[in-house]
């Protein structure tokens, strides 16, 4: 879905273009050429302004060339402005920037016109690091060798440059008009981008090398922007709470509303943030892989060939499904799995324990070396000409993920003395959030039993949050506020947590009072 | 004379060294490694702190190496601090810096211990640009070709590196402990150092490329400091009022006292600043060359071989003199010339018009193709075995300089509605200031007829002012205040000025009431 910036943003871009006619020098007004420009900038509210000493000749020459009519490009650096460029004369140039959603699976690029706060183009590409590990832990292990770490960084930067250049070409724009790049990614991806070893991120006590990056020259990473373009990487709060989540919060405006909201981003981990304008609490846990479709035998990402929607006929137990890309089925993605398990449960195929009901006689329930399994798609319907089965083992793995998710939601909500009922908004972010059907999530006991209108799937809020920093520099204050405000809770594995988890392994839960809307089918009760 | 820092400076160096034991990370305190250091720095008053993104790996590794005991080096950047270096463990390292008096003839280097506010070593070398022009105007013309401009810059930087390395070697210090270089020079020299074309400086309306330089990495100029050492160039106020004068003001504390003071720096130009803590007015004029010894036939700089003191026996008119370095005479420097002219006048050799009295019969007064001349040193006393003469032509040139100086002083003082009597302090800065005898200056009508105790010759106040910025960063506020406060007056050549100048061409002046202490010798009246 196309990126839409929130309506409440201010039109105060990270990079400003200012045309100015300077009073020509005279004996009575004999300050230096560059000081003359800086004086004018100050009168327009830009102060203090710094400039790169190596560029003084170039910048000052433009002032003379334009006979004291100049167009200055200024980059925001939190505590000062940087004079990025000076053009001779009055120039109506575009001020472009890229916002990047640096995901571990896919990367979303957005080309923006900063002056108009407009998205000009968007494009998404796979994260090229996938070659060295689908999941991020494999990449972290791979990166232990310094040359591998450098390789992972180079893969990212090459993909950045390639994609950015292609998008610019398609739009007929020049890289010299790109003055800023804002990037949001999880903590590990941010480390990879910066060439930092993320080794300590995945071992207790889970410490990143750095959370808060300064705004710095994009040229430091050899990005193909204007030579003095800026790069801004959204800060992390912790190893499992990265700039991507900060971007989510910004895009949703979680930190600006009185309403109590919860935001869940399911990626490799499930990351959760809960709060409102006054406080924010966050945690993360390993709920993701199975939900993302990464662990289950025939699981896959939500790409063409993946079954993303499933319904099961209550009478004949026959499945009907939708395949992304409309071709034959190759596997099943997270939202498909949730549908499938929910439908299997609601049609009585699964018991509350998540076992396939032995009493059912159906050609769709077959025996395998892994025990009984349900045929989601048969040989004629799959790409590889094999039955697409879901076994009890697959289901067991999946239930652990859904139980982990529900446990995390329970623990974090209870931690602040609240109940699910208190939540006015439940945002589901990430690729997952675009596909998941909350009703199905409730039926399997993964999501709390809230009114359906409470749930809201989000588009690319990560890209959106990054884009917001480009078009509205007051967002930096929001970011600072959010980072200060957030209490990040590391979920210690303890008895309470394990009890919660075990109860959530059932469908929908051992305590049916928690899911009043879910009517457990009678067949499974038998 | 050795550099002495004023007693009123604060011990708040531009670069700070801070040893810190960070709390080790835990699940409850899981911020990033570098953020952990930054948090500790903030608790110690250093905020905001930026760090170079390319150094994150290195800086963070030191924190782990030191097991969270670290020594941080922080550089002051006016609106933020820069994390220059992190050493593992507690390190008692020196924090060194160089202060440089970037003169057009000589360059003074001072190696300082910033923590102790101590000058460790000092060394002075000729400005290597002299090869391409003794006077600065020749160099400006030479620099019109870009490659010559680059050559002039390289000459300076090579000399900087050579001198700094030699001084460090002699002191057994390492360049990696040099974290800052502060440089004060006139506007043209600052331009040369930065590789900026000073062409506009010497033509109306006399506009420098830039007056205010940001603090920037010394590595930008390839100076042999710590790789992330800082470079600070004192700002200029105008083309003829450079960072050297700002340094003078700082060193003298002109801007901090209630007393009305005047400060004169005689170099290529005579630069004058007048004022107190409430206001400052400045101007400059071409009074210098002859006073510096640069134009008179046998004139020379105050280097070995130069006659710097002269007395003349009132009876036999025989000169006695002092030669710098105690060898034979090679020429005569500025202070020697002032003495000589004053003594010639007081002994009746010169008329009030500055002509050699024809009536005098003396073997010391000889005829030359340039007219009559006085023998200051004879063939036996000079290096080249030739008489060292001063001719009427020389004297005429010199009188123009002294008249220009007196005119400037008159005009600037009158401009603010004051009289010389109002001046409580009269500082004479520059190499010249160390040698000039105010009594002699008064006798020739170059300096106003004030009580001698009003006059104070200064040492290397330029180097001192630069050094002050290294050991006391609050000086940056002083600099900002001075730059804002100073009214720089461009002296327009007009009728009033020309009349003043013509009157001042006489010895001591056409109006003897201005010099009541100077008793004009009767012989010259005859």
3D architecture notes:
Two copies of one chain form a homodimer. In chain A, the strands form five sheets. Chain A has a six-stranded mixed β-sheet with strand order 7-6-5-8-10-9, with helices on both faces. The two termini of chain A are 44 Å apart. Chain A is built from 15 helices and 22 strands. Chain A is α/β, with parallel strands linked by helices. In chain A, strand 12 and strand 13 (280-285) form a beta hairpin. The model of chain A has no long low-confidence stretch (mean pLDDT 92). Chains A and B meet through helix 1 and helix 2 of A and helix 1 and helix 2 of B.
Briefly summarize what is shown.
Two copies of one chain form a homodimer. By secondary structure, the first copy, chain A, is an alpha/beta fold.
The biggest beta sheet of chain A is recorded as: 6 strands, mixed
Mean pLDDT of chain A: 92
Radius of gyration of chain A: 26 Å
Question: Runs of chain A with pLDDT <50, length 5+?
Answer: none
Biggest protein-protein interface? Answer: A-B, 48 and 48 residues
Beta-strand residue percentage of chain A: 15-25%
Helices of chain A, by number, come to 15
Per DSSP E runs of 2 or more residues, the count of β-strands of chain A stands at: 22
Work out the oligomeric state of the chains in this entry.
Answer: homodimer
